[in-house]
Amino acid sequence: IPAYDAEAIETKWQATWEAEDLYKTEEDPAKPKKYILEMFPYPSGDLHMGHARNYTIGDAMARQARMRGFDVLHPMGFDAFGLPAENAAIKHHTQASVWTHQNIDQAVRTMRRMGFSYDYDRMFNTCDPEYYKWGQWIFLKMWEKGLVYRDTSPVNWCPTCQTVLANEQVTDGVCWRCGSVPEKRELSQWYFRITDYSQELLDDLDRLDGWPERVKAMQANWIGRSEGAEIDFALADPDGRTPTDRTISVFTTRPDTLFGVSFFLLPPESPLAAELVAGTAYEPAFAELKAAAEKVSSVDRQGSEREKHGVFTGRYVLNPVNGRPAPIWVADYVLMDYGTGAVMGVPCGDQRDFDFARKYDLEIAPIICAPDDPLYDELKDERELRVRSVDWDRAMAAEGYLVQSGPFTGMRGGKHSEAVDKIIDFLAERGLGRKTVQFRLRDWLISRQRYWGNPIPMIHCDCCGDVPVPYEDLPVTLPDDLDLGAGETLAEYAPFYETTCPRCGRPARRITDTMDTFTCSSWYYLRYCDPHNDEMPFSKEAVDRWMPADNYIGGIEHAILHLLYSRFFTKVLRDLGLIDADEPFTNLLCQGMVKDERGETMSKSKGNVVPPSSVIDPYGADTMRLAILFIAPPEKDFNWDEEVVAGANRFIKRAWRVVWQLAQAGGESPVDVASLDARSKALWRSLNALGVKCTSDFDRGQFNTAISAVMEITNAASKYVSEPGERDAALCRRVAGAIVRTLAPICPHWAEELWHEALGQQGSVYDAAWPEFDANAARADEVQIAVQIKGKVRAHVTVPADAPDDDVAGLAQEAVAAQLAGKTVKKVIVIKGRLVNIVAV
Ligand code: ANZ
Ligand code: ZN
Known about the structure:
Blueprint: H1 6-20, E1 33-38, H2 49-67, E2 71-73, H3 83-92, H4 96-113, H5 129-144, E3 148-158, E4 163-165, E5 170-171, E6 174-175, E7 183-192, H6 198-203, H7 213-223, E8 225-236, E9 243-252, E10 263-266, H8 271-277, H9 283-294, H10 298-302, E11 310-318, E12 325-331, E13 343-345, H11 351-360, E14 368-369, H12 374-379, E15 400-402, E16 412-413, H13 418-429, E17 433-439, E18 444-445, E19 447-448, E20 454-455, E21 458-461, E22 465-468, H14 494-497, E23 498-500, E24 507-510, E25 514-515, H15 517-520, H16 524-527, H17 540-546, E26 549-555, H18 561-575, E27 585-591, E28 594-595, H19 613-619, H20 621-630, E29 638-639, H21 642-665, H22 678-699, H23 703-722, H24 729-743, H25 748-758, H26 775-778, E30 782-789, E31 792-800, H27 805-815, H28 817-820, E32 825-831, E33 835-840
Parallel strand pairs: 1-2, 1-26, 10-12, 26-27, 28-29, 30-33
Antiparallel strand pairs: 3-4, 3-7, 5-6, 7-18, 8-9, 8-11, 8-17, 10-13, 11-12, 14-15, 15-16, 19-25, 20-25, 21-22, 21-24, 23-24, 30-31, 32-33
Helix pairs in contact: 1-25, 3-4, 19-20, 20-21, 21-23, 21-24, 22-23, 22-24, 23-24, 24-25
The structure holds ligand ANZ and zinc ion.
């Protein structure tokens, strides 16, 4: 038996597979398709353990799918634009593309060493003009559809990254990339109208049965649909009583609390608030509040724990149902860009308003009461506002009955109560309000003031405004001779921005913003279907064959941003008639994290990173792959463990020997089950039992238990060939073939070597079918059952598995004849395959 030499075997098969183009997508329409997709990496250096795990999972799926007869698309590429490349270029006085390509080359070498079965012919980088050209093309199509616009509004500016950020990229109040606190800046920026798709993005989550519930919950929460009403309040004259003809609308989810409005709120950014206080004594305090609020992120401003700040404006609005004046305050917990940007303050029902009222000593009018509240008896029939303040220590969170609420008094109040609809109807009849739905999702801010990204294909002309770059002029290519190290930006680089207007021919200025890199990763999976198309981003035919991707594997950190944007792009491209799919990914697997031995996240700054090469060098890629999949189920976190790697290596070597031994004892003919002796029969049964289990575990992506099953088969086979006794030659060969083929998706080089050298096969093991296992053969011929007398086990008997109940009852009574002597059997209960209980007195 030859020694297992991982390095020699792996080098040999990587070269052979490449020479034979083994992983080229077949594109065989006669076969069912399977699109296995892993999130492509950002090339910031060599691959790390997280990548190794992600791609090993995908590779095992892809290889197994192929053996199960699918036409498999298994591509890979690089998400190559982005800030780290630019920062590295600045630091090292080089070009972003140079740094990026070095990293890509290194990552590809590691991918090849890991033996990943990608169709390398389809590989691309998003920074290739052949790719980003089509991103620009899609941008223009979206522009034509009215899905792109430019707007000047306060945006999140990261002072460290020197660019604006999308809402989604400010997480817990800080920049997702560098952790700095973004500032608000008033800037003209480009947006994608993702909010046109809010409802569909929410509804279709229900169709994604193959997605983890928590990811769907995160998306639903992010989209944030609220049902409620818009209610119009008249602005009063400075006298505080006479209505002007101006109205201010609020959005509320609790129209039932309308009679409890104690004050009215505007956000610090509100131009109306600025107008109301202009030139009054209230102006300085307002200005101070506004300046302070600008320094706080909107997430923090809304935080329920945060102290609220407000100032009075000196003015009032009038409540539409009873004409009662409510003072207008400016409060920092109110946001400009949610709802209508104005809030009716109901301290009785809303905890934030309650805290605010306590702090500034405003009314807390009780309009909703629980029946066990002493106030309830006093106010339950009261229609007028008689009691204007309560000494509660919290707002009323539970449902209750409306009090002091005019004609609605006595109705049940609460978020989904009858009073909500009744009051909306009441307002609607009088033209004072209407039912509405609000979404928390904002339009996607896509422009970035950084060089290393896909240029926005627009030109600004002083006469014609924003004019799209004509399709025939695409791509707008990034210049590669900018002096980034000297701080040069696209906006300062005349050869890039100087151009002429495509419409009127006058001198004009090219837009120098680039697109958020998340735009590049929103459709790359479509390009893989048809990566060399130079007339279109992809052909509809190719995409309709492969999409949606059957399995998408990647990190949970993309649960909101990348996955939501990709779903949005898919729907837009469908509406443009370019594809049929409604959703991009049928099944989503979020793999767990790889942590260090102490359970800490691996990171360069902590210095606890285990690079993949530190395992591949001593043990080989197959050991690495086996260890990664064996250590835990794919979706679970695990702590890196040298012992598991060493154990995986021991198993690979042992299985290597066992396969050789079986192969040497083996013969060609099919297994003749009827003629097997007891020892062979037992091996035949465990082969089938474990094989059935292994197959179903594989189908569910539970590789760790699938591997355990193969290990058990190997153990049984090892005993069979080493212990004395007859060996059935056909069975030996059958078992060897099964071990090699079931491990082939996981340890590809090992399997291919054994397939050829030990088993003498010609074609690749991946062109061989997944082995068949017989669930019936797995069933034992005889079973051991317990015999109980009145519930106590007295003996065990072995009976034929298919024996009728009467026979089993008889055999059981024989087995305990001694204990039954002198007693009368009243009843015999047979539980098939498990036990017989005898009731005797
Ligand atoms: C009156 C009221 C009474 C409210 C009550 C709640 C409870 P969701 O569920 O998140 O949609 N609101 C509306 N616009 C706002 C803005 N721009 N900034 C801050 N808060 C705003 O929240 C809807 C509720 O948030 C609305 O319903 C409003 O307060 C507040 F017992 O109106 B409510
Ligand atoms: Zn022009």
